[in-house]
Amino acid sequence: MFTITKEVYFCYGHRLLNHAGKCRHIHGHSVKVAITVGATELDRRGMVLDFAELAAAASEYIEGELDHNLLLHRNDPLVPLLEAAGERFMALEEHPTAEFLAKTIFRHLKARGFAVCSVTLWETANACASYTESC
Ligand SMILES: Nc1nc2c(c(=O)[nH]1)N=C([C@H](O)[C@H](O)COP(=O)(O)OP(=O)(O)OP(=O)(O)O)CN2
Ligand SMILES: [Zn+2]
């Protein structure tokens, strides 16, 4: 089994409604996502996949949907206020944790045909969450 990993960087704001500490307040992160794709055989170029193809697919989704967005749980009381103000945000079915974002990016790429093994999102320099499925 071969694997390749490509890193993508982006930013978002969020808050964690059920967090007991400081993360229940709106704050932001500049994060690194490491996306790993696998293959049992290499293609005619000798690659699992061109790093650039993976980066392009990941960036299309991340930059279009997540980057510089405000990620909120759909029940966050800010949602109607932001809607009324015409502000950009994304209302999520789950809490906007690093775990959920890793899973969301994984599922998006898998649905587009990439043999994703794992997505790891480094929310800070010393804290990350990963989502994995067999690839
Ligand atoms: N399992 C998770 N725990 C936490 C998440 C998360 O997404 N998954 N998120 C947060 C906060 O949003 C934020 O990431 C703060 O993280 P934390 O590492 O606690 O904050 P610091 O960088 O300030 O930590 P120090 O290492 O003490 O500086 C919280 N938890
Ligand atoms: Zn946070």
Automatic annotation (TrEMBL):
What are its cofactors? Zn(2+)
Q: In which pathway does it act?
A: Purine metabolism; 7-cyano-7-deazaguanine biosynthesis
**EC numbers on record:** 4.-.-.-
- Cofactor binding comment, as recorded: Binds 1 zinc ion per subunit.
Highest taxon above the source species: Bacteria
Keywords assigned: Lyase, Metal-binding, Queuosine biosynthesis, Zinc
Q: Which family does it belong to?
A: Belongs to the PTPS family. QueD subfamily.
Q: Which organism is it from?
A: Candidatus Methylocalor cossyra
Could you tell me one molecular function GO term of this UniProt entry?
Answer: lyase activity
* Reaction catalyzed: 7,8-dihydroneopterin 3'-triphosphate + H2O = 6-carboxy-5,6,7,8-tetrahydropterin + triphosphate + acetaldehyde + 2 H(+)
Write down a Pfam family by its short name.
PTPS
Q: Does the keyword rRNA-binding apply?
A: no
> What is this protein identified as?
6-carboxy-5,6,7,8-tetrahydropterin synthase
